[in-house]
User: Which sequence fits this backbone?
């Protein structure tokens, strides 16, 4: 697992975002000056999806991140995601940046920064997801490909949720981190069954592993509290709940519930004991709540003709859906 | 590291400096009613506790009966009915207190908003375990207010077709907390701190599948309330972010930094989605009115 549990690093997103924006503002060079050229073979864009509102950029990787960069660049993940987002009518461009995060920002976790309206995808995150993915199929039928693809897609969509809330001034009554997870799940559930299952299962499994590896709040006091105040808080049975994010287990069940509530194709979640029946009974209501929220607050900013093209496009490759 | 008692004492120090809530004796005279017409779209009812199997614990029947008698005299739902006078509802909402067989009864679209005797009983029993009498009263008043507003939030979201992002129960908490911060200062402080105190004292250990619950752990709700209070008024609650006597702050730095933003997010959501249904003239009257029994208010 990652040296820094994901739960521990997510909370720094806003702080990092501000820091990054300040750095960008003070930099005499434009971001585009530092973007790496596509070494080829070139990306073949999907016809009819104008992505000019979503510029993208791969920044130079550190030596440790060269493999991650090569894999992401070869997959053309930013190019594809830029086109995937093209139906959105946002008041400002949304920049997609792949970069090293740990050295500068002490995180491996992707984040959206409102100050420069950019989604930042950390090369380190690629490595973290690879490490978390199972080497063989789990009892719930989750494959390694499910987790790698699902977690990447889920994370891109989660951070996009934050961007939409910010740029569209979306009213958020609940906790924004849960709302961003909901946005990710809802968008995923608008695609075909293979994509739905890959993203929902992969995203859920990731949080299950996080919970198993100790990301949920502890139940006993730490006998040797760390010197760092934040880490000391996270090791405390009460203070750990101060995190603005839900616990890893909450995020697991929230994701499973939206899948189950949105489509009966997910009945196996209950049959396999992954989602308790007591929660499952509420999931259709939860999905309808989310559908209403998405319809009222996001759909007015979606080009429906382009959305149909996006929905008809096979964004994931066969091996990523296995 | 911080422990609950010291954290609790610190949480109360600001309210204590301003005066504490007196006890609310059952059978006391009705609160001085604000000169406001009750919201005609909100109906209230105190349903007599049932002695049958509806109660989770039949021995609680006597306790529920006492609560029932207190409610009929004190009439807190009628006060909420007046507090909500500015809210223009397109269809009626019924608020009731009933024995549920559990602490909560889920709101069903079109159905009544129910506050359960079981939860009121739990609030009173939790408060009874607090030695400090002033704290005890704050927990009773603050938590009861929070519970009513929280349950009512579900109906408001439903009736006004409010888009709700995030878990519904957290959204109901945040709406309740936001409304509580709009009370006059002494009432706001007492209800917010009293609610947070309840979540702190009543919390249980959560593990594994317990996290599948649609409702958040009390510890999470505790910090959400602290954050809403601090986000709404960081000066009054600045003590929560200070390390004292070798103890960490009650509200850790990484969360405190987010609170103004979290509060602003709820305020903006309220302005956009609920304020269009609020009568501005009546709202001014509500803000100028004296809420709660005169003897219940901070001195």
Assistant:
């Amino acid at each position: 697992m990652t040296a820094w549990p994901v739960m521990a690093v997510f909370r720094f997103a806003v702080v990092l975002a501000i820091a990054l924006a300040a750095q960008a503002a003070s930099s005499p060079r434009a971001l585009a000056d530092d973007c790496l050229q596509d070494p080829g073979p070139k990306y073949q864009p999907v016809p009819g999806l104008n992505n000019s509102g979503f510029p993208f950029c791969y920044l130079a990787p550190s030596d440790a991140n060269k493999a991650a960069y090569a894999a992401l660049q070869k997959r053309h993940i930013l190019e594809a995601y830029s086109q995937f987002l093209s139906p959105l009518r946002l008041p400002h461009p949304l920049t997609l940046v792949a970069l090293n995060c740990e050295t500068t920002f002490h995180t491996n976790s992707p984040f959206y920064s409102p100050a420069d309206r950019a989604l930042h995808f950390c090369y380190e995150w690629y490595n973290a997801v690879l490490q978390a993915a199972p080497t063989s199929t789990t009892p719930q039928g989750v494959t390694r490909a499910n987790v790698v693809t699902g977690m990447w897609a889920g994370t891109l969509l989660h951070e996009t949720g934050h961007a939409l809330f910010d740029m569209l001034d979306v009213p958020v009554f609940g906790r924004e981190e849960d709302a961003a997870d909901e946005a990710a799940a809802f968008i995923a559930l608008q695609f075909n069954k293979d994509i739905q299952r890959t993203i929902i299962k992969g995203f859920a499994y990731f949080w299950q592993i996080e919970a198993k590896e100790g990301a949920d709040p502890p139940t006993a006091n730490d006998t040797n509290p760390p010197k760092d105040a934040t880490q000391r808080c996270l090791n405390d049975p009460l203070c750990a709940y101060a995190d603005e994010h839900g616990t890893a287990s909450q995020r697991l069940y929230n994701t499973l519930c939206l899948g189950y509530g949105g489509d009966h194709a997910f009945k196996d979640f209950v049959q396999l004991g992954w989602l308790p029946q007591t929660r499952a009974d509420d999931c259709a209501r939860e999905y309808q709540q989310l559908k209403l929220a998405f319809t009222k607050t996001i759909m007015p900013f979606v080009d429906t003709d382009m959305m149909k093209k996006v929905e008809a496009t096979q964004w994931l490759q066969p091996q990523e859906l296995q | 590291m911080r422990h609950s008692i010291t954290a609790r004492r610190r949480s109360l120090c600001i309210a204590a400096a301003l005066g504490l809530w007196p006890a609310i004796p059952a059978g006391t005279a009705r609160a001085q009613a604000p000169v406001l017409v009750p919201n005609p779209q909100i109906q209230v009812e105190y349903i007599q506790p049932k002695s049958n199997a509806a109660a989770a614990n039949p021995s609680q029947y006597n306790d529920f009966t006492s609560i029932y008698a207190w409610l009929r005299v004190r009439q807190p739902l009628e006060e909420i009915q007046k507090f909500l006078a500015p809210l223009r509802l397109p269809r009626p909402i019924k608020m009731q207190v009933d024995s549920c067989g559990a602490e909560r009864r889920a709101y069903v679209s079109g159905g009544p908003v129910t506050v359960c005797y079981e939860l009121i009983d739990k609030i009173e029993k939790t408060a009874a375990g607090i030695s400090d009498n002033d704290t005890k009263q704050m927990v009773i008043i603050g938590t009861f207010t929070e519970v009513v507003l929280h349950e009512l939030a579900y109906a408001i979201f439903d009736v006004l077709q409010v888009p709700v992002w995030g878990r519904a129960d957290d959204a109901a908490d945040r709406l309740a907390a936001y409304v509580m911060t709009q009370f006059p200062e002494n009432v706001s402080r007492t209800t917010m701190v009293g609610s947070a105190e309840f979540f702190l004292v009543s919390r249980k250990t959560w593990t594994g599948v317990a996290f599948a619950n649609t409702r958040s752990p009390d510890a999470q709700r505790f910090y959400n309330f602290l954050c809403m209070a601090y986000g709404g008024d960081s000066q009054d609650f600045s003590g929560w972010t200070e390390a004292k006597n070798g103890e960490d702050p009650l509200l850790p730095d990484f969360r405190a930094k987010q609170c103004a933003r979290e509060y602003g997010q709820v305020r903006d959501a309220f302005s956009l989605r609920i304020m269009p249904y609020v009568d501005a003239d009546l709202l001014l009257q509500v803000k100028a009115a004296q809420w709660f029994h005169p003897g219940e208010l901070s001195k």
About this structure: The mean pLDDT of chain B is 86. DSSP finds ten helices and three strands in chain B. Chain B touches chain A through 51 residues (CB under 8 Å). The longest strand of chain B covers residues 93-98.
